[in-house]
Protein: Tryptophan--tRNA ligase
Amino acid sequence: MKTVLSGIQPSGQLTLGNYIGAMKNFVKLQEDHRCYFMVVDLHAITVPQEPAQLREQSEAVAALFIAAGINPEQSNVFLQSHVPQHAELGWLMTTLTNMGELERMTQFKDKSVGKDSVGAGLFVYPALMAADILLYNADLVPVGEDQKQHLELTRDLAGRFNHRYGDYFTVPEPYIPEVGARIMSLDDASKKMSKSNPNAGSYIALLDEPKVIRKKISRATTDSGSEVKYDPAGKPEISNLMGIYSQFTGLSLQEVQNRYEGQMYGTFKKELAEAVVATLEPIQQRYRDIRESGEIGRILAQSAERAQEAAEITLAAVKDRMGFLPRKR
Structure:
């Protein structure tokens, strides 16, 4: 059984992009993989976070994982900070990482542009991300296109460690679904749908009420003309909406195109909204049930305990190979 690891930051509301690009795939992968799904709260603090909001969002993201269909009896759902081996291996990986590798990270460039001061954590956190993956010797890592660069660094660090200290780490492979890995903004299909976008109309949050979802989709930007045709280069806006429709109905893009041949955008957008609402309403109800039950604390604790057992084995082996003196019991 291969091992899968992935995580989502608890900063801002989770969106359709998170669901389609990550969580929907998590549910599929857990059937025949050993899965570790994290709320990466240590990554979140690379930019300032309000403490109460960080606590609330961390619990909310974990509850949404489970509401979306991740079974905590099959998979491990835990907070990154609850497994201290992440931070320790993160430091060890930082010492193996070159400055030039971190300087080339496009996410760091994008997030630091125009700022007078940038925290060191934002610069070095790709080494912590590498540690997250290598701590469980993950075979597959579900990533969006924007995270492929970080996974390449992880692969490089795994190879560097293996060359220097002897083969130990699995060199992970990306898991990128053909459709849906990159859902774009509702107001600008040249930009990824992001929970950090200041324009709330640019994304659909998983906890948006049905009337809000319908309004956002009705106002979503469309290309000139009225043909529902999948053409990412020529018609990026409607192609993005068709990708969402495909993910929520199970129809292929060609089948979506055939269904709306000769029809206007209005009909398509109305039925897209209903397809999204029909999927999200049960998830939202399960989310409310989980939060009200108070079970999320127990689930996180049990998963963290299982994850820590696996993580400690890896960390001990890494420290031994690097020459650290073990503590006497």
